[in-house]
Amino acid sequence: MTSKHHSFPLSNVKEGSRVRVVEITGGRGLTRRLMEIGILPGTEIEVVKNNFPGPVIIKNETIGSICIGYGMASKIIVEVV
Amino acid sequence: MRFHKKRNNYVEIDLEKKIVKVAIIGNPNVGKSVLFNKITRGKAWVGNWPGVTVEKKVGKIKFNNVVIEITDLPGVYSLTANSIDELIARRFILEEKPDIVIQVVNATNLERNMYLTLQLLEMDTKLIIALNMMDLAEKEGIKINVEGLEKELHTPIIPTIAIKNVGVRELIRRTIEYSEESTPSMKFKVRYDPEIEKAIEMIIEELSKLGVERKLGLNYRWVAVRLLEDDHEVTRILKENGFENIVEKALEVRRELKEKLKTDVEFMIIENRYQNILELSQKYVERSIRREKLTNLIDRILTHPLIGFTVFIVVVYSMFLLSFNVGAPISELVSEALSTYLYPVLRYGIQNEFFSSLLADGVLKGVGIILTFIPILFFLFLEISFLEDVGYLPRVAFLFDRYTSKFGLSGRAVLPLLVGFGCNVPAILSTRVLGSDKERKLSIAIIPFMSCGARLPIYILFTSIFFKGIEIPIILSIYLVGVTVALMTAILFSKTIFHETQPSYIIEMPPYLLPSIQNMLSKSWTYIKSFLIRAGSIIVGISVLIWVLSITGPEGYLGIESLTDPEKISNSWLATFSKTLEPLFKHFGWDWRVIASLMLGFIAKEVIISSMAVIYSVGEENLMIELSNYFNPLSAYSLMIFTLLYTPCMATVATIRSEVGLKYAFMIIVYELMIAYLTASSLIVLAGVIHHGF
Lengths: 81, 694
Known about the structure:
The structure holds two protein chains of two kinds. Chain A is of the alpha+beta class.
């Protein structure tokens, strides 16, 4: 939790930035679902589009290109790489 | 090579004895349904999985002297059993025990797809991988060492390009061949953290002492891993079979492991799987960095806040233009042909008047309504399939989600809702493109409030009599009332029945693809077929029922003249029911004739006008004059609002029933009648207050 002030929810990230997942703050089910498609702590992702306060499109080699709803995106805590 | 001798090897050959049961599985957007269609050549039985609205497709093909029965499992990312889809897929594999499981893998996205592969291997399935979209992978600069991966996984991998029919025959051939071979003795094993491995070993030992594998037919290692992942389904199965102890033990082990690892075991297991996958991909996948410039550019345009919406409006507008300008005239031709050629034959060609009227005025009317739907359905579904296959729908979802999520709907629901303005039936069927069961049910509940094309003639007729000069704003206000009621209903339902305020979802953004015409056609045919089979019989049934209620009354049989004679129809059951209901509608200023016409409007909303002509005993051309004697602007407006909101037509109701079940359809009918009555009533009250206020 030391990097708390450098990290923020994915939903607030600017388009075009590269970020690293720090943690997922959702419940067990949500965390599981996100991890299973490759959004794991430590994963680097590119934020392609952000329709704040709406969905976010993210991308990397493992995950491919996906759109995540606002609710989910606000529970993924990331830091800028 | 003998398999390639004849092109048409699928034809009936009676030598067959052997049936190979195959399940086809994969992540969403890997081309699974295209591959399924290519394998089964579009011939499949379509239904729902028991108890849910998830579509089930089963196809049977003959290949040489083997019959392959192939089941299309729902698209899933994992087999954890988080969602209904995952549960269905997993149960099928565990309980039906298919001889072969084919996993369709998207070659451009190998790593994420392999998560499912590892789970399938762990479940001890006899797996074949169809490495699909090889052409796209090549374009994106991805090179996969298929042989190496095949050897390491001990699993056959067949490269395919399903959309171009490349590799499909080889896949079928290999499937049959592999089903005859014994299961490979060597297996790929996911390597977990040493501490977790120790725990797995320990649980396996316990399980083998109890003989769980023999009793339940489940693989030990899989059960052990699932127990560590806190799998409720496996826990339940074990408990039901009297193995509570092992469940308790596993729980203890989990707790100890959490202490040691300082993290949840189930999350560690997921991370370990991905570590295995990354090792594999480092060995067997080569990527030369190549940016997909075109995809990015199109994405930028389609998801742009301004340009994106403009494109969307143009797309939807042209969709409607095509379906209704091309489809509607064909529908009219069909209904013309039925009424001028087939109707007289049935009505006057048969001696027995009762029987001929039953066929002509009851059955044929229902069949006619079904047939007139088909051209419009066909074009709409062709367009929707096109938009889906080309990859446009996820972009629409992204564009609209920000607004729709406030109403408990994801952005994907926008398209079905808009289709509703044309016709509710395809709108309801097209909710199949939505992700979750809840979202489908929610959309289906509000689609009937989208004022469809069949209701427009009624607005036009009444506004031209009572609102001369301001027809367009009045008609627009009616559409607006519909949308407002729909959105309010969405909020109400999502907060009460579905207990969900924000839909949570993940949608893939697939690369843009040129769709295959065959796939589009077969998709639209699937939609139309399910409408014909599942809704068709109900529509004919209701049509006959209304016919019976019109020609019989409390005094018995009235004769079929009742259908055209206002004097006689006023003695029918239909009129009797309407008269009983009259007090309820007194404040609207309606008498039984309006109520009877609205009841007949259940057949199809456009029938309301022609029914009024019969009941008021005037020709349709004189109806305007007649109506101006019976209605005033207020009662006319309330009639239009009532027409907009009340029970959708029988084709819509039948479709709702076939898509989400009788109970839900019934609830929607009751709810919508209530809303129509309350809205129209409050309008009258409000007008009264304003009137007396002045």
